[in-house]
Fold this protein.
Amino acid sequence: MMRYAYFPGCSLHSTAADYDRSARAVCGRLGIELAEIPDWNCCGASSAHMTDERLALALPARNLAAAEKEGLDVVAPCAACFNRLKITWHEVRHGEAAKLLADLGIEYTGRSGVKSLLEVIARDYGAEKLAGQVVRSLEGLKVACYYGCLLVRPQEIMDFDDVENPTVMDGLMEALGAEPVPWSHKTECCGASLALSRSDLVASLVGRILAAAKEAGADALVTACPLCQANLDMRQREAARAAGEDFNLPVYYFTDLVGLALGLGPAELDLGKKMVDAVGPLRARELA
Amino acid sequence: MLDLLKNILVRYRLIFLAPYVKGVTLRRGEGEAMAVLNLSELETSRRPFISSLLEESGTDVTECYQCGKCSAGCPLSHAMDYQPHQVMRLCQLGAREKVLNSSSIWLCAACMTCSARCPRDLDIASVMEALRRTALREGRRPKEARVSLFHELFLSSLRNYGRIFEVGLMGGYKLRSGDLFSDLELGRQMFMKGRLKLFPHRIREVGEVRQIFERIRDMEGNG
């Protein structure tokens, strides 16, 4: 039995509650136990590291300390949380954060590691093993795997995948029978930290990403981050208006598609909450 | 033709005429760095600024050889008054006023593409971060006031509840920024889809989180 300390993060308790549901449903199916960190606090992404380096380390550390007490590695479904938690782990293990934490009375030694949910499913559980569990192949579905910034950068700390051309999600999609398209904007930034304050700029970044996915022939985008999903999905209409073309690309969490292939239905995966219709295109292909 | 005219204005330091020439628009800061920097005046601020950036970011800006790869990959360089490689150059020259008052440091989305691609292995994103922190410490009015207001309200929500109360953050941001009417339709749709949680959740031990904030503030007070 695989067991992890689960750090959902703020988005998964509100705007991305659907990701929380689909992540839990998939892990339940695969026998991956998620023990939510009791009384967890916000890790500070996207603002603490913008303004205060010490705060950016101390806030994630309180959560890591709680997981370490249980002797568990932490898994984060959100790429932004994963990034901040892993940087903190790295600074404790290899940098000078241990002293800061001691001064703050936070007991964390770096024994408990940090993983993204994508790594846990694609690598720890394993894409190959997952392929054997598929009951509904996603054959014919062309997907553009969008990794964004925070899963892959900074490479020496995240130690996740190739920094310019990551492929772990593509491999996972292949295991489900889907067809990941090669495309140009896998790791381009969607501007999440400016989503509210400069939505005009974000709409243009989102537009470029969607246009690239469309050009590559994708039917849908797949993400492993609630902030990317929100930007690409909710700002799609605005981006389309700015770009003068209709994209009409549903934006799934990778867990949505894993769940579908495992036989879970749209309701169990909470697919109805997406802004761009995510259920209709599946029905049309008899995948839901 | 207009491009040629624009080049002449920049080349011969006539950018002050740009507003009077129909069809020529200069991006903020374009042509300016060359026209107004007095290098002798900067000589005194140069070394201390470079070493403070080294201390704060671990990056020696003097190692930058201005290839421009950071700016080529930066998703927001088109909107900045100085592109990332120009920020690096201004840092090398000690032009602290220009960089600390720039929009660039606030429009940087911290996506770290620049750092990932720098052939000199410089962490440009961390220089941007050091510049933001320095600007805040010195109490400067951020050129992108809404961006910094968002960060301020984000952290105050975090301190208040231990987590981010998104609806409260959005509402507070709208009131304080005066940007009341954008995204109303989007907000309505999010509400209809059940993507908004209307009440905050305060964590049990919120005192621990507040203590982290206070202790760090005290540390900063003592340098």
About this structure: DSSP finds 13 helices and no strands in chain B.
